[in-house]
Amino acid sequence: MSTTVAAPPAVRLESVTKTYGKGANAVRALRSVSVDIPRGSFTAVMGPSGSGKSTFLHCAAGLDHPTSGSVRLGDTELAGMSETALTKLRRTRVGFVFQSFNLVPALTVTENVTLPFRLAGQKADKEWTAEVLRRVGLEQRAGHRPSELSGGQQQRVAVARALVTRPEVVFGDEPTGALDTVTAKEILNLLRATVDAMGQTVVMVTHDPVAASYADTVLFLADGDIVEAMSSPTADKVAERMTHLGAWS
Amino acid sequence: MLGLALRTLRSRLSGFVGAFVALLCAAAMVTACGILLDTGLRGTVPPQRYAGTPIIVAGDQEVHWTTSKDKGDGEVKEKTKSKPLTERAWIPADLAAKVAAVPGVAAVRTEVTFPATVIGAPGDGESWGHGFESAPLTPYALATGAEPKTGEVVLDAHSGAKTGDTVRVLTADGVGEYKVSGITATALDGQSSVFFSTDEAARLARAGQLTAIGVVPAPGTDTGALADAVRAALTGTPGKVYTGDDRGRLEFVDADAARVKLISMGGAIGGSALLVAILVVVGTFALSMQQRHREIALLRAIGATPRQMRSLIGREALLVGATAAPLGALAGIGLGVWLGSRFRDLGVLPEALDLVISPFPPIVAALATLLAAFVAARVSARGVIRVRPTEALSESGSAAPRVGVARILAGLLAVAGGVVLLIVLSGLRTEPAAGPVTFLTAIVWVVALSLLGPLLARAVAFLLTPVLSVLLRAGGYLAAKTARAQARRMASVITPLGLLVGMTATILFVPTTMGDAAADDLRAGTLASYTVAGHVPSSTAEAIRAVPGVTAATESLTTTVRVGQDKYRAQGLSAQNLTLTVDPGVVDGSFSLDGDHAAISSLAADQRGLSVGDKFTVTMGDGVHVELTVSAIYSRHLGFGDLLLPYPVVAAHVDTPLASTVLVSGTADAAALRAAAGPGLAVLNGAETADARDAAASANAEVQLIAMGLIIAFAAIAAVNTLAMATADRARELALLRLIGTTRRQVLLMLRTETAVAVVLAAIVGTGIALATLTAFASGMTGAARPGFELGTYAVIVGGAAALAWIATVLPGRVALRRQ
Ligand SMILES: Nc1ncnc2c1ncn2[C@@H]1O[C@H](COP(=O)(O)OP(=O)(O)OP(=O)(O)O)[C@@H](O)[C@H]1O
Ligand SMILES: [Mg+2]
Q: Among the four residues A5, A200, B431, B641, which has the most C-beta atoms within 10 Å?
């Protein structure tokens, strides 16, 4: 008889709380959140404004220390790690796509994409970099500066940078928030493709039910708590749930 | 990392222009000051009069003293200090025989030196008389004529006289007529020589004394060995052996004093420049750091450790420094040469002392600047560590960061330092000590301002919001609100403006503070109605005394002496009817300069622990000790110097024993006095005397101003720099304001109001700093806490700062608005 030890989830949060400020001004942004993000899944995080989505992402990605609770990235416990250790972990094990201002204006597309290697003092894998750029459709633009690219193209560079280190999880905070619907679709398809074709784990915060419908699972946050996890979401179902949460009343 | 630093640098050039300009200026100023310092330390004075004689025996041109310090463990450490004399030291004439007896000496040539001016001769330098026997020291050879006999002189090639002419020569003995017996083939630069017969020269110089003995070595004698032999023969006598360039230092006694002045001035200005540079560069770096907040947050988020960020910023700074420093150092050489020529015009740098231009000052300046850039970057990078990576994700841009505890502590420390310096300064009573401390005090207060600026800006904006909103409506409301939210940016603008106002006022009003106090003393203490100015021999003074209606004519001569180790400005005054011309403000004793009586200022009396009736020893300018008795203690030392000595005592120990002024009381009129004084002397009434004094004072102030003016220019550049940088960066914010319906006029009004708030704040703080510093300076130096603020000059300072600020904000603001 053989026992299979289940591989740990990509990210596991256990009773994570986050409180900003002290005393009378304290804001409880997360109240005891526990959740597993399985490997190779595409997870969307939704909720009304101020419900704690960004805070959730920051804590899960090692950008910020939770007030209490445990955050594990694979086998690594993030709680209690030093700032420098967290930074080094972010370099290679986590990828980020922000809503805007993702790129260093002074650097070209290739240089921006390989920046995490440079910061880690490693040589960039040339072939893989070229491959990632090809996948995001920017192989022709490798030598351009961010200011010479459209908003959608800039977001694709950010996706390429997030993928280039083959991270365990790619986090996005409204990565399509600043784009028009057509361009947003391209980015969402790109993210979906990395999950399907490369087995990448993606966690994305979004306001848009259509964007959320690209995910495998949608987590709904309200007042710093996960109130529901919806599988096989559709835009309509998500929109209805959101209305229910009072996001659009 | 270096590559990344280079990249960010290149794409954000505008952000670094400020730091670049500041570092460039700093390197240039430090180089220029370094050249002055180097000249003071290593400048050589090539011999002129003694150029033709390898070994010269003369008096010791330094005073020495030993200080012993008990180091606690029973061991006593002895240290010998030497300071240059201010007048020529003389030696006994009998040393000549001693020197001549040394084997290897072929001949000795003795020399005496005394003032002798051919009246009406060309040439603006000094003119010295000698006996003709010392002509070979240079060597001077006769071009025409013969050596002088009694009643005759030989003049040099520049004199314009011919053999057979009759000339009138002014010496301490009065004006005499001489026949020109010959003209020399050559002449010296910047000094004229008049040769008398040996007997006549001995009569006009100090009896039984010489200024130098020239040693002519026997053929084939080694000069070095001979110098040693002469030195050995002279042990135990006042004679000292001079060879090589030391002969030049012997000849030009004032070059040593000028050296000391160059060293202290070069050090003070260079040091201030470097401090101001660090302050300015920290400011511009901090500002560019604020502008790059999001980029820094992004880099932190995707994996740059705080250490990497610090090193990135450090390297950017080094790159900026590495470009700015060599360029600035190079420009500094030109600046140094210019400063040197200005100083030469103003008499600070003597003709004889050549400017030393070596690679050291530019190299040291470049390295110091590089270090300053690095320190500045390190200091401003402190804030970077606090940038949270999560800020890269937030859309609202950077919120106003809280003012850190460390910054507040450092600010309070600077305030404490400033207070301590103020207290120290108010206790300093001599100019060499008070000068540098004054500028340091002002700088430390500006440092405090730069650290606590954000708190100040926030507090003021909070108070101003309601006022400005009512007065200026939307524009004022926006200005006050942004000033509050962007307290740091406001502070980074206030600091250089405050520096500009504070430093300029301090620099400009130090001389007026001193000058006003000295003028007050003189006005109160001068009882004479006329002053005869020029080189006045005793015989002429007698002639003035004989003019009907003259009740007193006091000859006056200034010199520098030491009592113990302290140096004092002293004045020799003739004793007869002295109290009719001079009232030094006697506080104790009765004022008399008869015999060995001397008066001493209360400041010097305190320092030396002297009281009326005490005997004390004065080391005269030529190194001779004279014992005197304190007859009175007086208070008006700023106008009269610290010691009032009997005129004959001073005249016996200075190079030029002629009165520089004669103070005349009585009812005689100017025409009668002019007739008695003869040609070449000016007769001035009270107002004219004050004007002449003011002119002399402003020449002195000009030296200060030229040097310190560099720092003022630097502060102005820094202010413009920072303001332009701060405004240019706000294009996005201004565009947003326009989008949401703010009119162009409202936006410009907002910018102008912000600038006005900054200027007013900076003026208040800068004025406060200058007032506090000058008050402390005044209470130490003049005994009265009265800073010499001139309202007209002050208005120009504040107006200038406001104009600069206005140009540096509104112009970039208009450009930013047009670009949309
Ligand atoms: N740095 C902070 N300091 C204090 N409170 C904060 C801070 N960041 C977030 N908060 C508060 O925590 C709560 C959650 O904020 P969070 O940014 O996670 O919301 P969100 O769901 O991402 O909102 P949105 O959809 O508007 O981006 C909010 O009430 C917010 O005001
Ligand atoms: Mg958010």
A: A200
Ligand 1, atom 12: closest residue by C-alpha: A29
Range of the domain at A129: 39-66+82-244
Indicate which residue's Cα is closest to atom 31 of ligand 1: A50
Same domain for B773 and B648, yes or no, is no
Residues B193 and B246 in one domain: yes
Q: Residue B358's closest CA among B41, B6, B760, B764? A: B41
Does any CB of chain B come closer than 8 Å to the CB of residue A32?
A: no
- Of all ligands present, the nearest one to the C-alpha of A53 is 1
Does B2 share its domain with B22?
yes
Is residue A193 included in any domain, yes or no? yes
Residues B214, B104 share a domain: yes
* Tens digits of residue pLDDT in B272-311: 888 887 888 887 787 777 777 778 888 888 888 888 888 8
Residue B237: give the domain boundaries.
Answer: 55-255
Which chain B residues touch A78 with a CB distance below 8 Å? none
Domain count, chain B: 4
Evaluate whether residue B673 is within a structural domain. Answer: no
Judge whether B681 lies within some domain. no
Residue A125 identity (one-letter amino acid): D
Looking at the structure, tell me whether residues B111 and B230 fall in a common domain.
Answer: yes
The structure tokens listed for B520 are: 């007050």
Asked if A92 and B300 come within 8 Å (Cβ–Cβ), the reply is: no
List C-alpha distances in Å: B223 to B215, B246, B389, B778. 10, 15, 77, 55
Residues B435 and B385 in one domain: no
**What is the full per-residue pLDDT of chain A (249 aa) written as tens digits?**
444 456 788 899 999 999 988 877 888 999 989 999 999 999 999 988 889 999 999 999 988 889 999 999 988 998 888 888 888 888 889 998 888 778 888 788 998 898 888 888 888 888 989 988 988 888 888 888 888 888 888 988 998 999 888 899 999 988 888 788 888 898 899 899 989 988 899 999 998 899 999 999 999 999 989 998 888 888 888 888 888 876 554
| Contact status, residue A203 vs residue A170, Cβ threshold 8 Å | yes
Strand partners, B665: B552
Question: ∠ CA B288-B290-B292 to the nearest 5 degrees?
Answer: 70
Nearest CA in chain A to B296: A104
| Chain A residue numbers touching B390 (CB-CB < 8 A) | 54, 58, 63-64
Q: Could you tell me if residue B675 is inside a domain?
A: no
**A161 CB under 6 A from ligand 1?**
no
| Helices B306-345 & B293-301 angle (0-180, nearest 10) | 150
- Compute the distance from residue A39 Cα to the ligand 1 centre, in Å: 27
CATH of the domain at A109: 3.40.50.300
Q: How many domains does chain A have?
A: 1
Run of H or E residues at B58 = strand B55-59
Ligand 1 mutation pick, A31, A33, A45, A51, max ligand atoms within 8 A of CB: A51
ipTM: 0.87
Instruction: Measure in Å the smallest separation between the Cα of B311 and chain A Cα atoms.
Output: 12
Cβ < 5 A residues, ion ligand 2: A 54
| B393 plus B483 within the same structural domain | no
Q: Which of B285, B456, B432, B362 is nearest to B780 (CA)?
A: B432
- Closest-CA distance of chain A to residue B751, Å: 27
Which ranges of chain B have pLDDT less than 50? 396-400
